[in-house]
Design brief:
144 residues
């Protein structure tokens, strides 16, 4: 008599704190991109200041989400869940590009253009990728 083992996966959402930290990077990096675009069209220095503060907010929330994701990655079976590793890499990439963008924003107003806008766009795209990979793919365990 042959026995078969059925595996069903337990579908659980992200921890609420992790979800808030992950979701908070999107408006920060999006706001930074929009502020850079507004600065590029008006050259009003306050838009560059807004972008700098929004990038710092994205780095804070992204760093905490990255720390949470790394702890989750160390606790997971990486061979079984490769999307979790891609999620951590995308989040790390968004954080690194955001950090470089913060350094570019520390320059004079005229010197930061157009590098700041391009880096803001790249950070936003990497944050969107991390959110896309993170929300639907982080699931807990399996049952036999």
């Amino acid at each position: 008599m042959a026995t078969t083992t059925e595996r069903s996966y337990v579908r659980t959402a992200l921890h609420p704190v992790h979800a808030v930290l992950l979701a908070a990077i999107l408006p920060c990096f999006l706001g930074a991109l929009l502020s850079d675009l507004a600065y590029g069209s008006s050259y009003e220095l306050q838009w560059a200041n807004f972008a700098s503060w929004l990038i710092v907010g994205g780095l804070v929330f992204g760093g905490l989400a990255l720390l949470w994701a790394i702890v989750g990655l160390l606790r997971a079976d990486v061979r079984r869940d490769r999307r979790r590793g891609l999620y951590v890499l995308a989040l790390l990439g968004a954080w690194i590009v955001g950090f470089v963008n913060a350094l570019v924003h520390a320059k004079d107003g005229w010197a930061r253009m157009p590098d700041a806008t391009i880096l803001s766009l790249i950070a936003l795209l990497l944050a969107l990728l991390a959110i896309w990979l993170g929300f639907p793919s982080l699931r807990a365990g399996d049952m036999k």
